[in-house]
Structures are given as structure tokens and as C-alpha cells.
């Protein structure tokens, strides 16, 4: 495995067995037809301030609830479940993408892993991702420029989440949304069929090309014919 280059969605900044081999961080797969649901910026009706739909364990005797998401999701529900600015839902719903397209901020807390497809879905549907996962590495940072289209909130600062979102909404939300509405950033996170220049497959191949080139150069000695 350590002689391989691994394509993976699991990206963390701390040492981890999954990253001991050379790797390329890619986005979680989301079906390309999500682009058909893209709301035009001038027509988007964002009537949900902060949105999350997903698993949120709350029962103290449930072992999953004690460890899942480092209790971040449970804390979000406990603090904001009764707050009308937060639309928090635990049950599955086939039309959840329509909810994302109506939302200003989409909460993306860690689960068992720091990433999930909801991060890509939020970007694809124009909802500002709020990443709550300490030490996460995000895919294709040169192309997507995550600090320009998303927010990062430390796991320990969940109690200040409303304050953070209110401050962004009152100051630079329009700039973040303009960056988010750049079609090139959406394209970079989606695996199209067939592949198109600038899509996720294209960026993955470019990253592989760079790593293979560096690996080939390291294996050659200056006296080798191939080096010359």
C-alpha cells in the first residue's frame, strides 16, 4: 500500500494510517444531475437560515450517542433545536436537496469521519458550507479555494455557532455567496460523465500526474540514461 498512490475522500491533517501512503484527496461522489437543481443566484429563495438534516444521537445510554461525531451533532441539537433560525431534522427525506437550495448556511459537522457528501451538495446548490470538523483537509484547495466559499467553526465553538453565522450574515455574506456561485468551483467537485476539463476527475488526474512525475524523478539518479 505504501508504494501506491491512493485516491481517497478521508482527509485529516493529523497522522493517520489512511494517509501513510502517497494519496490524492478527492471529493465524495455526488451524482452530476445535482447541477440540474442549481438555483439561479438571482432567483434563489433562501428562507432557511441554517440547515442540517442527518443523524443526531441524543440518548445518553446509546453508545453511539456518546461517541458519534464527538457529540458535536448532539450538542448542535441540544443548543439550537428550539431556535427558529436553525432548521434541524433527524429523519431521512428524499427531497432534502430542495431544502439545501433554500438555505443560506448548511451545517457540515463531522460524523464517524470528518467529511460527508453534504459538503459537496451544499456547494453544488449554493448553500454556504459550515465545516465543523477539526483538522479536516478539503479536496482540490487550489481550484476550490475553500476559505472563500465556506466557514470553519471549531468543534469546541459550537456554542458560538449562532453568533458566528449572524456576524457573517451581517458583514461578508454577499461576497461569500458570489464566490460560491462561481460555476468553476462547483464543477471541480463533481465527477461528470464523460469527463470534462475542470471537473473532479480532471483535477484528480492532474494531481496524480504531478505525484507520478515527482516519484519518477526521485527514483532516477543523475547518472542514469533516463535522467539525461
Automatic annotation (TrEMBL):
Where, subcellularly, is it found?
Golgi apparatus membrane
Give a GO cellular-component term: Golgi membrane
Question: What biological-process terms (Gene Ontology) are attached?
Answer: glucuronoxylan biosynthetic process
Q: Which GO terms describe its molecular function?
A: glycosyltransferase activity
Q: Which PANTHER family match?
A: EXOSTOSIN HEPARAN SULFATE GLYCOSYLTRANSFERASE -RELATED (PTHR11062), GLUCURONOXYLAN GLUCURONOSYLTRANSFERASE IRX7-RELATED (PTHR11062:SF229)
Keyword Transferase belongs to the record: yes
Q: What is this protein called?
A: Exostosin GT47 domain-containing protein
Endpoints of the signal sequence: none
Question: What species is given as this protein's source?
Answer: Musa balbisiana (Banana)
Mind listing the UniProt keywords for this protein, alphabetically?
Glycosyltransferase, Golgi apparatus, Signal-anchor, Transferase, Transmembrane
Protein's UniProt keywords contain Metal-binding? no
- What residues does the Exostosin GT47 domain cover? 4-167
Record's bilayer topology term: Single-pass type II membrane protein
Q: What is the lineage of its organism?
A: Eukaryota, Viridiplantae, Streptophyta, Embryophyta, Tracheophyta
Q: Which Pfam families match?
A: Exostosin_GT47
Tell me the protein family, please. Belongs to the glycosyltransferase 47 family.
InterPro entries registered for this protein in UniProt: Exostosin, Exostosin_GT47
Amino acid at each position: 500500500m505504501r508504494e501506491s498512490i491512493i485516491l481517497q475522500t478521508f482527509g485529516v491533517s493529523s497522522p493517520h494510517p489512511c494517509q501513510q501512503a502517497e494519496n490524492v484527496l478527492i471529493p465524495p461522489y455526488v451524482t452530476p444531475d445535482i447541477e440540474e437543481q442549481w438555483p439561479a443566484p438571482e432567483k434563489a429563495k433562501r428562507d432557511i437560515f441554517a440547515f442540517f438534516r442527518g443523524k443526531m444521537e441524543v440518548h445518553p445510554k446509546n453508545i453511539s450517542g456518546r461517541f458519534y461525531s464527538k457529540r458535536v451533532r448532539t450538542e448542535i441539537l441540544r443548543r439550537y433545536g428550539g431556535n427558529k433560525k436553525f432548521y434541524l431534522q433527524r429523519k431521512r427525506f428524499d427531497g432534502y436537496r430542495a431544502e439545501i437550495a433554500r438555505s443560506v448556511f448548511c451545517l457540515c459537522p463531522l460524523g464517524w469521519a470528518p467529511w460527508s457528501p453534504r459538503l459537496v451538495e451544499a456547494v453544488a446548490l449554493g448553500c454556504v458550507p459550515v465545516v465543523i470538523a477539526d483538522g479536516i483537509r478539503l479536496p482540490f484547495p487550489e481550484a476550490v479555494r475553500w476559505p472563500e466559499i465556506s466557514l470553519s467553526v471549531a468543534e469546541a465553538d459550537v456554542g458560538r455557532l449562532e453568533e458566528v453565522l449572524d456576524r457573517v450574515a451581517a458583514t461578508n455574506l454577499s461576497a461569500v455567496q458570489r464566490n460560491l456561485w462561481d460555476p468553476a468551483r462547483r464543477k471541480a467537485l463533481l465527477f461528470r460523465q464523460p469527463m470534462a476539463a475542470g471537473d473532479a476527475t480532471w483535477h484528480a488526474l492532474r494531481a496524480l500526474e504531478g505525484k507520478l512525475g515527482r516519484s519518477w524523478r526521485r527514483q532516477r539518479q543523475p547518472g542514469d540514461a533516463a535522467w539525461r
